[in-house]
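Incident log, entry 3
Record: DNA-binding HxlR family transcriptional regulator (122 residues)
Problem: checksum mismatch between cached and fresh output.
Input:
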Amino acid sequence: MPEPLDAEMFAGCAPFTPLMVGGKWTAKIIHCLKDGPRRFSELRVPLRGITPKVLAESLRSMERDGMITRTAFDEIPPRVEYELTPLGRSLLVPMAAGCAWNREHLSELLHARESYDTRALS
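Fresh output:
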């Protein structure tokens, strides 16, 4: 029989996991910003499933967490750009590993879900 789990096993960890900082859109936003600064309207193109309100909230949250910077230019019409900080860039490598794992195991995951759902309906 294995040892009981330690009640303090997460005591030294941050209160959140890195990919959850900013919400479920964070990883996709980081990916969109990997090649340099982007405007809000540019981000909306590949993130077509996100509402403008949720995108704005996600960007604010990511800025608060130090993942991105927001630069407003004094121009007419106004222009705002979002860019990854070094902290945000530090997630590119682990995210790439997660994507590679996903690609490698996607068929297994889908098969497991299908099997589970079939059993759950029985």
